[in-house]
Amino acid sequence: MSPSAQSTLSAPVPAHAPEPVTAGGPSAAELLDFALRTAADPEVVSSLPLDPEGRTWIRLDGPSGSEAWLIGWPPGTGTGWHDHAESRGAFATARGRLTERSLAVRLPAEGWQSLELAPGLDRSRSLAAGAGRAFGEHHVHEVLNESTAEHAVSVHAYYPPLPLIRRYSRSGPVLNLEHVERPADWQ
Ligand SMILES: [Fe+2]
């Protein structure tokens, strides 16, 4: 990817964008249903080892060939800004509370290194135990446990299984693409 001049991105995602069609796979709503049901299963949730020093995770069998994870979040930990390329997904909080900060805009998939976000595109939501959210392809977000005391646990599912994750740094309105992770990097 060649560095390009910083461009400004301002078009919000339509409020009711049609769900992308990937034949044979679960919809984002079905992934959310799985995440919520699994997050409500104490046997699964309690199988995750928790580490006060860092995030922990276990791979789960997601529905219909999806990729799923059970993740533990000590207080103060987070993912940093990233997207999931062409995968759609969902996650649900099983214990504690998670914050999701996201962008209400679809980023161009290729050909840029730095984007200035127009005002008004930032979104934030707080997901207590039992709450979840689904998202479409190219969703950009960061997930954090902002608690100072309570460990959080959550269930995540993606379809198609993640081909890559793009990681970004954020400086005010400017989003910089930092690197691209492939499955070999996190398995
Ligand atoms: Fe994510």
Automatic annotation (TrEMBL):
Pfam name, any one: CDO_I
Positions of Fe cation binding: 82, 84, 141
Record keywords, A-Z: Dioxygenase, Iron, Metal-binding, Oxidoreductase
Domain of life: Bacteria
Keyword Signal in record: no
MF GO annotations: ferrous iron binding; oxidoreductase activity, acting on single donors with incorporation of molecular oxygen, incorporation of two atoms of oxygen
Comp. bias (Polar residues): 1-10
Residue ranges of the region described as Disordered: 1-26
Protein family membership: Belongs to the cysteine dioxygenase family.
Protein name per the record: Cysteine dioxygenase
Species of the source: Streptomyces subrutilus
